Amino acid sequence: DGPVSQGTTGKGINSFLALSRDRALAQAAKVDAARAAGQDLGPLAGVPIGIKDVLTMTGSPATAGSLILKGYLPPYDATAVTKLEAAGAVLLGKINCDEFAMGSSNENSAYGPVKNPKALDRVPGGSSGGSAAAVAAGFAAATLGTDTGGSIRQPAAFCGVVGVLPTYGRVSRYGLIAFASSLDRVGPFTANVKDAATMLQVLAGKDPLDATTSDQPVGDYVGALAKPVDGLRIGVPAEYFGEGLDPEIRAAIERALDGLKSLGCTIVPVHLKHTAYAIPTYYVIATAEASSNLQRFDGVRFGHRSGDSKTLSAMFKKTREEGFGPEVKRRILLGTYALSAGYYDAYYKKAQQVRALLTRDFLEAFESCDVIVGPMTPTPAFRLGEKTDDPVAMYLADIYSVAASLAGICGMSVPCGETAEGLPIGVQIMGKHFDEATMLRVGQAIE
Ligand code: GLN
User: Fold this and answer.
1) Does the beta carbon of 184 sit less than 6 angstroms from any atom of ligand 1?
2) I need a labelling partner for 10 at 20 to 30 A (CA). Which of 151, 201, 274, 282 fits?
């Protein structure tokens, strides 16, 4: 099992849930044989990569961090998994995450929390905390995560690695265990921006197995990095620098902006005026979609089934009572409420209307700038246990991430220094729909 399991147990990070030893060794042998035969090797030949446990990969259980799927063996590979392997990647195994990707700290996993490799008393962020931690600890060269309302970008910021949220429709969701289908996206974690561009190049594109993928041509992400950034207009949203922003983070973002200015970029003040409504809007829409998506876990079709019930409906209830953790139950209740007759117009429909306004904010801002730059998180990584008793405080940690999710635009987090205590700080770069190339260029200029 090599350095991965040693590292995991050695440091107690708890990032990997399962190692796909046979599959990894078979793939490594295949890459070696291709190299020996002088064949063309893919862009990820031999690169060790870990997969968030909400994506399916045959031969390894797909738990989504939940007891309800404990030991569940999926019958097919997610498209992202297929594409990585076709590019030569060696897939190491499945990575810990918040249950059904619901959380901001990776403390909602049924398989125990993940620790932040940069500070072991701190959370790695979530829900893809294990994916960020695995790259930060050097267990994998890259990992896959998913981002519904910040779950790639926020843990990347907390762990000091690069995390990319591709535009909605850019990367296939086929084989992703759904949380909120209109928001869920698959994307990479890497140690640097060039690796992120390489990963996105492999992952992006139309997939006949996911009707929401776009046939927009895939950009030349790696090639774009060679272009200088001078002349680019950097939008800076006043709403992202308000009360509650940690002063050390503010200073680090300002330094990053000064760096861009010295490279010839123009700083353009912009307004995203509905920002204050992003969190309530997100938590209505995400929970509504989750309550619908999670109906399928009924003890009949997948995973856990409660043993001793006399009727079918008692079995449904007991299975869900035993299988789902408290945060998942909270969200099913919230989402069911928002969708119920009599409340639908006041909550779900209203949230969809505000979602349109939040999207319009970005489209208007992008009329005067090429990318938008701001803080990724209001604070650095918080302590394990600090927010577990207060779900609203946990939701508020998503303040800078959920608007881009609702708008469908692309975003990324790039390390831009650390606090006096040595905790990583991430800067967020948001790009226009399908303009990952410009976003990555700016990311590399900051790095
Ligand atoms: N923290 C957010 C939530 O709990 C985002 C999760 C995600 O992006 N998967 O819903």
Assistant:
1) no
2) 151
Instruction: Please say if the pLDDT value at position 164 is more than 70.
Output: yes
Count how many domains the chain has. 1
- 413 touches ligand 1 (CB under 6 Å): no
Query: 127 catalytic, yes or no?
Result: yes
Question: Which ligand 1 atom sits closest to the C-alpha of 104?
Answer: 1
DSSP assignment, residue 445?
Answer: H
- The alpha carbon of 148 and the centre of ligand 1 are apart by a number of angstroms equal to 6
What integer pLDDT is reported at residue 400 of this predicted model? 97
Predicted complex ipTM exceeds 0.95:
yes
Q: Please, which residues bridge with residue 269 across strands?
A: 236
Residue 52 is among the residues annotated as catalytic for this protein: yes
Ligand 1 centroid – CA 198 distance (Å): 25
CATH number at residue 172: 3.90.1300.10
> Is the Cα dihedral 84, 55, 371, 150 positive or negative?
negative
How confident is the model over 328-380, as pLDDT tens digits?
A: 999 999 999 999 999 999 999 999 999 999 999 999 999 999 999 999 999 99
Predicted confidence at residue 308, as pLDDT, reads 86
The pLDDT value recorded for residue 11 is 62
Catalytic residue of the set 109, 151, 405, 413: 151
Domain extent, residue 160, equals: 1-447
pTM over 0.90: yes
Residues near 23 by Cβ (< 8 Å), separated by ≥ 6? 57, 59, 60, 91
